[in-house]
Write a structure and sequence with these properties.
Blueprint (H helix, E strand, L loop, with lengths): L2 H19 L21 H5 L19 H8 L2 E5 L9 E7 L2 E7 L3 H13 L7 E4 L2 E5 L2 H14 L6 E4 L1
Antiparallel strand pairs: 1-2, 2-3, 3-5, 4-5, 4-6
Length: 167
Amino acid sequence: MRMLPAAVAALVAVTGLAGCTTAAEPHPSPSPTPIPTPTVPRPDSVLGDAYVDPSELTLPAETASLIPAGAEAVGCTDLVLAETPASHTTSSGKCTYDGARVRVYEFATADDYATFISDLEGAGIPTQGMVRRGPLVFAVNGLDARASLAAALEAASFPKGSTSLIE
């Protein structure tokens, strides 16, 4: 009868192992809660007559540069304004005066002008040959053209201000 306890033990062992080898049922994962899409009212339905479609807005025009008028006043031809103004300027361009190449710069403030000149000198770029009148600075190639341009600026009285030669 020794076999009976061994048979029972074997049966218990097989039954116990059988339970271990069966795959456990996966726990059901919670289904994600859908996020509702917010309803955004149209601006005109909220604001009524106060709503203006952005495509209908007219933005104020940029303040026009003084460079074209200044260049014309002294007889500078072939003016081309730079798409990207020089550093510290509101606008800049180049033209031809009496056969000499001229760069023209416009400054919003005296501090911008001083910083510009300081940056040029710091980079080793000579500032001699420049003529300043009000917010405009004309950088002329050629001393003869510089004297003539300064006289033309003085005669034109444009823009307001005194004419100074940068030495």
